[in-house]
Amino acid sequence: MKKLVTMREALRDQHLLGDALPGPSWSAWRTLLIAACGEPLTDAERVTFKALTGRDREPGEMIETLLVVAGRRSGKTKAMSLLSVFLSTLCSWQDNLSLGERGLALFLAPTERQAGVARRYAEAIVDHVPLLQGLVENRTANALALRRSIDLETQPASWRFSRGFTSVSVALDECAFLYTADDAANSDTELLIALKPSLSTTGGPMLLTSSPSNMEGVVYRLWKRHHGAQGDPRCLVVQADSRTLNPCLRQDVVDRAYEEDAVAAEAEFGGQFRQPVTAYLDRAVVEKAVDRGVTGRTRLPGVTYRAHIDVAGGTGSDSFCVAIGHKMHDAGRDICVVDALFEARPPFDPDIITKQAAQLLLQWGVSDATGDAYAAAWPITAFAKHGVRFHTAALTTSELYLHTLPLWTAARVSMLDVPRAVDQLCNLRRKVGQGGKENISHPRNAHDDLSCVIAGLLWRLTPVAARKPKIVSPGVFSNGQWWGDAAPANTPAPNGYRQGTEPWRSYVGSRWPGSNPFDREW
Question: What architecture (CATH level 2) is domain 286-467?
Answer without folding.
Answer: 2-Layer Sandwich (3.30)
